[in-house]
Amino acid sequence: MIRDITLGQYFPGSSFLHKMDPRAKLLLIIFYVVTLFLAKTLAAYAFLFVATAGVIAATRISPKFYLRGLKPLLFIMGFTAVLNMLYSDGEPLFSFWIFSVSWEGIFSALFMVIRIVMMVLAMSVLTYTTSPLLLTGGLERLMLPLSYLKVPVHDFAMMMTIALRFIPTLLEETEKIMNAQKARGADFESGSLIRRAKAMIPILIPLFVSAFRRAEELAVAMECRCYDGDFSGRTRFVEYRFSWRDLIGLIFCVSVISITLILNGVTLLGGIGL
Fold this sequence. Notes:
Blueprint: H1 22-38, H2 42-58, H3 63-70, H4 74-86, E1 92-96, E2 99-102, H5 103-129, H6 132-142, H7 153-183, H8 193-199, H9 201-224, H10 244-263
Antiparallel strand pairs: 1-2
């Protein structure tokens, strides 16, 4: 399960998306999420799925990494689907106890799961094709107008960088601790849910100790380099410039939004929409 968590990983490459400006990719992700919530019919979602698959193919990263990143969310997706199925209004197909299931609930659950899957895939595309340093720099540039309102934009961006950078490190540390505990006879997979939860305590304690130790080492390293968080007068190693790739990405995004809005008027399976 630990190896299935791919959030924060970056795969170096030379694809079209790898070379795009991180600011453009962040804006396109925002537009994409808005488009997901604008979609109301199966036709619109089918089109968005095809568009997302095309973008994933353009990254030149194996689809197995994207699918592996969805595995830890299966429980959340299943739980969300059940809630939407049981608590949506509509003509009941069948009932049991105090619950009833309708066609509207089934389609509501389907749409919600599709939204979660495609949002996770979109975020995976962003992190897989953008290094944490570039991603944070792009986020900081987009939030720069907030600095005039005394918002600590640079500090916020630095925290995002550190968080993204240490997610894979902490996951690797967790796997090492679990392997060490298993070598000593620990069992994390059998027994009831409460028993398995108690078995995680020997993992959490050394993990917290390791995390605090790494945080202290990082703080000392930053102090030794005279880091004070003041952004004024600081130069950048990488200068961000929009290029023709970003223009093509924007045109593609606008086209996707337009086609999605058009397909909202096209209903499938008896005119069922959300």
